């Protein structure tokens, strides 16, 4: 049955990248399938979520996190399609669209988590910055496929691209320029997604512009919040960062900030840590958060053009507050610990050193006696401008996995690293 929720406006392709043929699949199915089979998606298996990938094999990586966000996103869509009176079999939110957005939401994030993102933004600041979500778009539209030393995009649909646009502020218009922006040269993507300036009329502040998101982007955002608020706690407990004693000490400091039911949950979490049932306790929250989501209507200028801006989600306040409390707990007991900060510092220092060496070798005029980059990058550098070269170096480093970054660093600077086995 045809789904009338989406129109040709939603399924239109940006026209940059490999062509698409229907072949029995919807445009949104094609977007999802291309993500799953891409090298950029596979690299997420060796990129940091909380703890450095490979440290222990049961911790979540960016890949397993993205898969969990995708499953939660699909479940939210199922729940809304079944329970919302505004929706029906012929007028419903597309699961494949939401799944592809969730799978790809971290595809451009670099090694070493947010520390890597901050370092690359500092290194690229004079050339327009670096931001993980902006890099998502760059991969999808410009870097998805490679033919020798030429790159091209995956030709994504408008609805898919819009779902990936968590932020709509250009780097040059961003006040702090630390994050929550897209690159200035991506304005054409923004113009494709929102083709008429009048659709953004009235959005006068950076916060208002970045908060103007499609329905599917809202669902992905909430699924992401659910996944990392719960699963970062789970990983933190398994790693020994979060214990009953530490939770109660943290609660002593923050008790006045939270309602009775939130404090009760933390007490039950402490008890479940003692009897080793914390995983089930946390897993039950996923269903609670999903079923706390309802579909509402909203009035936006773009709502006249697409149902993606005619509808929004509303999350019941108690669930939202409980989710925020878990995120605060994870930040306090895991992310702000010396152990994690030391690893982030080390990762950032490694990226800085690699960037410095590559920049020294490839940004100067003349020949490049040392081939430090793969052949296709080396060849592309020869015909690129100064600005293009630096952005290309950033693309290369941000695409490297944690393990590949460390091996490259050792190969360049560790005197004892360099046997034939080490070179593989």
Automatic annotation (TrEMBL):
SUPFAM superfamilies referenced in this protein's UniProt entry, alphabetically: HD-domain/PDEase-like (SSF109604)
Similarity section: Belongs to the dGTPase family. Type 2 subfamily.
Taxonomy, superkingdom: Bacteria
Family annotation (Gene3D superfamilies): Hypothetical protein af1432
Keyword RNA-binding assigned: no
GO biological process, one term: dGTP catabolic process
Keywords in alphabetical order: Hydrolase
First and last residue of the signal peptide: none
Residue span(s) of domain HD: 62-229
The keyword Hydrolase is annotated on this UniProt entry: yes
Annotated protein name in UniProt: Deoxyguanosinetriphosphate triphosphohydrolase-like protein
PROSITE patterns referenced in this protein's UniProt entry, alphabetically: HD
GO molecular-function term, one example from the UniProt record: dGTPase activity
InterPro entries for the chain: dGTPase, dGTPase-like, dNTPase_2, HD/PDEase_dom, HD_domain, PHydrolase_assoc_dom
